[in-house]
Amino acid sequence: MHKKGSRPPKSEDIIVEGFSLSFENRQVFNDFNINLHSGSWNVLLGRSGVGKSSLLKAIAGLLPTGSFEGTIKQKNTASLTDQISWMTQDDLLLPWLSILDNVLIRNRLCPTKKNPPLIEKKSAISLLQQLGLGASLDQKPNTLSGGMRQRTALARTLLENRPIVLLDEPFSALDAITRAEMQELTHKHLKNKTVVMITHDPLEALRLAHFIFILIGPIVCEARSFSPESSPIRNLNDPAIIQLYDVLISELSMGKMTI
Q1: Confidence (pTM)
Q2: Hey, which of 48, 69, 178, 218 has its CA 20 to 30 A from 155?
Q3: C-beta neighbour count of 124 within 10 angstroms
């Protein structure tokens, strides 16, 4: 049905070693280690407040210097700098820019005299059309629904075209049908990239992940790992997947809510 999520490390794997972090006088991680597999979808599950987003911030290099202990690097010791694109829970759209200009923001932030630009306009328009936003290219964020804003942020992240992609609940604002469509489109666009995604939905993890990691609190010392036998994207009606869902729910129930 499934196997423990282990595999001989590859040189591009992201290695987190001895990670310890406290926040507002509460210890969140203590001597935590995890191997995030390159070229695969690594999905993090855990109860609310367990520290999933903090771990993503640490990988992205966004935690203040000295705020944590441990090392985060690729096995080949390569720096993660400039390799990562990150989609946060908040869409972070600039309110004075249109949808199209928001997803092309990298061209403004990193101007270059080279042609073509970092992100081609026609590529951005094509992706927005695939995301169901083709009729809204000139709209401003304050005119959009929550789901449309989230899809705009997703487009911006995909257009970064970085080898490592961090996704913090990227489909949470979408209805069930749109969510399934966006999952498939995103999986296609990120083929062979190293993806680390947070979700609160075990079924979403089972549909998309090559490797599932469950963080158990209140102080996270380890991650329980699972790797379904079949390849994503999976049929959630598969009896083996339904059985593994029960296992994941049982594992999650062992953790205490921290907020």
Answers
A1: 0.92
A2: 48
A3: 22
Mean pLDDT of the chain: 91
Residue 110 burial (C-beta neighbours within 10 Å; 0-12, 13-18, 19+): exposed
Say how far apart CA 73 and CA 137 lie, in whole Å. 38
| Angle formed at CA 86 by CA 83 and CA 90, multiple of 5 degrees | 165
| Sheet of 2-3, strands arranged across | 2-3, 223-228, 211-215, 41-46, 194-198, 164-168, 84-87
CA distance 93 to 141: 7
- Give me the amino acid identity at 128: L
Q: What is the mean pLDDT of residues 105-126?
A: 82
Distance CA 119, CA 128 (A): 13
**Residue 220: strand pairing partners:** 29
SS3 category, 190: coil
Give the whole-angstrom CA distance, residue 177 versus residue 49.
28
First to last CA, the chain: 33
Predicted confidence band of residue 1 (pLDDT cuts 50, 70, 90): very low
Is 139 within 8 Å of 128 (Cβ atoms)?
Answer: no
